[in-house]
Every structure is written in C-alpha cells, then in structure tokens.
Design brief:
binds zinc ion; ZNF277; metal-binding; 9 strands; C2H2-type domain-containing protein; zinc ion binding; Znf_C2H2_sf
Length: 353
C-alpha cells in the first residue's frame, strides 16, 4: 500500500525552474533540458529512468527519489543491471519497482484530477458544435450534454470525462475524414455518414477501442486494470461482473440488490451514508472498507479479530457497520483498490436510493 506522500516541500520546488539532480547538487530545468539531465544521470550516476518523457510532473518524480536516496543508498533501493556491451552496472528506475510504479500512477492521477477540476469549472470553453450550427460557449459538461440531448451523441457521463478538448478534436478529425465514430468505416460524403451513424446507432464512441481510455477518469483509478465503459450506459453492457458485499461473502450481479442486502443485513445503506461524499471519496471509502475487512479489522473502531466471522459478528452486534470519520479514509492511499478488479467500484455511479 502506498502511504500518503508528503509533497509539500517538493511542490514549492516544482514552481522553480530548476530541479536538483537525484544524487548531486547540479540543477536542471527538466522542462527544457530533460535529455541533458538524463544524459547526466546516465554518465555520472549510472541511473536510467525508463520512459522518462511520459512521466507526469517529472519534477515531483525526481524529488521523490532524491529524498529516498538521501535516506538510503541507491544500491538498497534500486536493482542494478548490466546493460549489454559494458560490464558496468546501471540502476534502472522503472515500473518494475513497486514504489516507482505507484509513484508514476499517483502523479498521473494527480495531473488528471487537476485537469478535471479545471474542466469542471472553466466556463470559457468555446467550440462550434460538431453536429449543428451552434457556436457553443460555456462549460464542457454542458456541451457534452448538448451533444447527448440534441444530437443523441453519447460520449459518456460528463462527470467522468477528462481531457475533453482533446476528445472533441479527435472526434472532429474523424468526422472531417468522413469516418464513423463507432465503427470507423469511411464514407463517401457527410450525408451518407450521418445516415449510417443514425441508422446503426453509431453515434457513440467504440467502447472496445483502448484509445479512448484516457478520456475517462475512472480508468485512472487502477494501475493495471483497464476499466470498460459498460457501466456508462446500460445498453453497452456485455460483461456481467459479480459484485461482492463489503461485509460478507455474498455476491450479486445487481449493485442495487447488493445494496439492499447491505442495508437489511448489515444496516449499512450505501446510498444514504455516502450521498454527501464526492465520487472519489466514495471510491476511497470502498477501498478503505475492503482493506479493513481484509485485515480483519473493524471499520469503525479498528479492533482486530482472528477470523472473518468474529469480525462480522462484532460489527453486527455493536453496530459498527458505520462510516468512520471522513478523515480516516479520505487519504491518497485509498485511491488504490484493495482487490484487483473490484467490481463494486465499477458500479458506484449506478447506486440508487
Ligand atoms: Zn547528478
Ligand atoms: Zn449541436
Ligand atoms: Zn459505424
Ligand atoms: Zn453482506
Ligand atoms: Zn468495532
């Protein structure tokens, strides 16, 4: 589990232009001189950073590792490998290291959340509608709703979308090239294309095309698992997952039936309990409960038990199937699911009262 990072000091540094090297006092502007920096750490410190150009906020990434290397020698933290022809050993910072992988994921998630927050509130978004003469100005989510309400074009839940400008630009390119949004077949003219998209109900993006993953915030929550967008619209659903109760082994394919069970058997009405939380807080709450139950610890009083039955009866008897203080679970470490592919998380937005 990835503990909360203290980025406070590093953040102030990231506003400065120069970042100090991982192992020596030299400073580099990583925005403009990344290749110089990479060459320096390769030549002078025998460090390789895999795929450095794709790391979000590389300044914070470097600060994180510099702090680690100040505490413990690099030999203890990073495996050394021999790179072909030479006998020299090199330290490779890559996603093969758990710490590195989680750090990159956290930076990516943070960058996405920051962008999403901007897109949610920015009212200066301007675009000519792709499907009518409207010249739109306002919030991105309202344009997405316009596409859905007036043109029946389904891009997904506006609250789950991110990097919307990019997405719109991509769609515009497809349409200009007379390609169908969904099947990407090319047509001879705009009218035939429009007809095809309407008749075949292809006014939506292709959920199996991984290119679109980056536009859906929920895809960022897990490091490896690619979220399918089947939860977005019921009619896209082709895989049925079973969802497991947060407190016992019962599972169901219907999240709302499962919630009914939790509310009658465990006196935990997920909808009521979490209605004042935002989406990410709900994600964190689920991950927190999963972790506590997995560790055989009560979610409210943190008491430990020998087995799942004892934990369940404790929480039952003393009424501890209750949400703890938000501060307990609203921590960065709970962005990460306790169980891989926890389908409860996929259906969070489908829970009704
Ligand atoms: Zn250096
Ligand atoms: Zn329009
Ligand atoms: Zn099509
Ligand atoms: Zn249960
Ligand atoms: Zn308890």
């Amino acid at each position: 589990m990835f503990g909360p990072l203290s980025f406070k000091d590093s953040q102030t540094q990231s506003n400065e232009l120069e970042t100090q090297c991982l192992l020596c006092p030299l400073k580099f502007n990583l925005k403009t001189c990344l290749p110089f920096f990479l060459k320096h750490i390769f030549d002078d410190h025998r460090i390789v950073i895999e795929d450095a150009q794709h790391i979000n906020n590389i300044q914070l990434y470097i600060c994180h590792w510099r702090e680690k290397f100040a505490q413990r020698p690099i030999e203890e933290l990073v495996p050394a490998v021999t790179i072909s022809s030479s006998d020299l050993k090199y330290f490779v910072l890559s996603m093969l290291l758990n710490d590195d992988k989680q750090l990159r994921h956290k930076l990516k998630l943070d960058a996405m959340l920051e962008r999403q927050e901007f897109e949610r509130t920015d009212t200066a978004f301007k675009t000519a509608c792709l499907f009518c003469k409207l010249s739109f100005e306002g919030k991105r989510c309202d344009y997405i709703s316009h596409l859905s309400n007036d043109h029946n074009v389904r891009l997904g839940n506006p609250h789950n979308l991110v990097y919307v400008d990019d997405l719109i630009e991509h769609i515009e390119k497809l349409l200009n090239n007379l390609k169908c949004l969904y099947c990407e077949k090319t047509f001879t003219d705009r009218i035939t294309l429009k007809d095809h998209m309407r008749k075949k109900q292809h006014k939506r993006i292709n959920p199996t095309n991984t290119f679109y993953d980056k536009y859906y915030a929920t895809n960022y929550l897990e490091e490896d698992y690619r979220w399918d967008r089947s939860g977005e619209y019921a009619d896209w659903k082709d895989v049925e997952d079973t969802i497991t109760c947060l407190y016992c082994n019962l599972s169901d394919k219907d999240i709302n039936k499962l919630c009914l069970h939790m509310s009658s058997k465990h006196q935990f009405n997920f909808y009521n309990v979490t209605k004042h939380l935002d989406f990410y807080q709900r994600v964190k709450l689920v991950n927190y409960i999963r972790r506590q139950v997995h560790r055989l610890q009560c979610i409210l009083c943190d008491a430990s038990f020998d087995n799942a039955d004892k934990l369940e009866s404790h929480m039952q008897e003393v009424g501890h199937c209750r949400m703890p203080n938000v501060k307990v679970f609203d921590q960065p470490e709970f962005y990460f699911p306790t169980f891989e592919n926890d389908s409860f998380l996929h259906y969070l937005e489908s829970i009704d009262d």
